Amino acid sequence: MIRFATPLLILAACAANTALPQKGASSDDAKIAKRLAGLTPGAPVDCLPPQRTSEMQGYANTILYIGGRNKVWRSDLIGSCPGLSRGDLPVITSVSGRVCRGDTVQTRARIGGMWTGSCALGPFVPYSK
Questions:
Q1: Which of 48, 56, 64, 90 has its CA at 20 to 30 Å from residue 127's CA atom?
Q2: What average pLDDT does range 50-64 have in this prediction?
Q3: What is the model's pLDDT at position 12?
Q4: Which residues are bridge partners to 73 per DSSP?
Q5: Strand, coil or helix: what is 102?
Q6: Does the residue 9 lie in any domain?
Q7: What's the domain count of the chain?
Q8: Distances (CA, A) of 84 to 4, 30, 87, 113, 129
Q9: Is position 72 within any domain?
Q10: Which spans in the chain are helix H?
Q11: Is residue 122 pLDDT above 90, yes or no?
């Protein structure tokens, strides 16, 4: 009986989780807006320039690649990786050896190492002064 109950409980918990409102989205939007304040967006590009970023900041629907105080690339994700907002580790799979649109991002919990989500990178919009 326990063998059959466990998958049903997991399925019910997952279904209940998708019905809950996403609380982090508005705070993520505010953090992204604050980081991009004073910067002007440019034309989207398909791949990041090699070795131009020093930091990555992850949010549920967006990743910011930081290239200094005055240069940021924004990639809105295809799908959602809510684990990025919690600080889960991103694992990016690239076929080309560069970080490009369409590359897969999987998130992994820092404690326990469980996979927590999967999404894909969108185009990269450069923001600069």
A1: 90
A2: 87
A3: 38
A4: 65, 126
A5: coil
A6: no
A7: 1
A8: 32, 16, 5, 14, 27
A9: yes
A10: 2-19, 24-36, 83-86
A11: yes
